[in-house]
Amino acid sequence: MNQEVVPLAQHPAPTRSFTVLLSPTRRGARLARLLTVAHLGAWGLPSESAAHIVAELAANATVHGRVKGRDFQLTLTVDAKTLRIEVTDTRGDRLPPGPGAVKAPEDDAENGRGLLIVEALADHWGVTPGPVPRKTVWAEIGLVR
Fold first, then answer.
1. Whole-model pTM?
2. What phi, psi does 58 have (nearest 5°)?
């Protein structure tokens, strides 16, 4: 009797995604962080770095990207190797400095450190303009170390 061993088909890990619109307020920024922690916890993923990144990007969306009557969007996407965080606001005319171009503020400054935190915690990050009038600031964290 001849037997043939056929390997099981390997399927890529499922992609998980979560998207929500939030008000461009301090409460909306806080909710973005809390929802991130909740979803990553439900997905069995660590959330500490992601929570800090979301807090900074959401705060920037509420302070620098706020347009009255327009929400900002939080998107979390997970594949087998990467967590991608995207925060989209409707101030595409105000682009932040990109990776490597963020300058440290004066020692006594009370703000200006958010993107430095993102740069320190994310493996990759950047800014994608458009479609008009939007921009998306995104960050990726590797899940396999």
1. 0.85
2. -70, -40
CA neighbor of 57 nearest in space, from 127, 132, 110, 123: 127
Q: Residue 105, preceding bond cis, omega within 30 degrees? A: no
Q: Which of 68, 67, 117 is nearest to 93 (CA)?
A: 67
Q: Which amino acid, one-letter code, is at 102?
A: V
- Per residue in 83-120, pLDDT tens? 999 999 998 888 887 788 777 767 765 666 778 899 99
Question: Using CA atoms, how far apart are residues 2 and 16, in angstroms rounded to an integer?
Answer: 42
How far apart (Å, rounded) are the C-alpha atoms in residues 57 and 33? Answer: 10
Residues 6+ apart with CB under 8 A from 40: 46, 47, 50, 76, 83
Q: Report the pLDDT value the prediction gives residue 99, as an integer from 0 to 100.
A: 82
Rounded Cα distance, 53 and 83, in Å? 12
Residue 142 phi, psi (nearest 5): -70, 140
First to last CA, the chain: 45
Residue 8 has a pLDDT of: 54
Residue with tokens 């890990």: 13
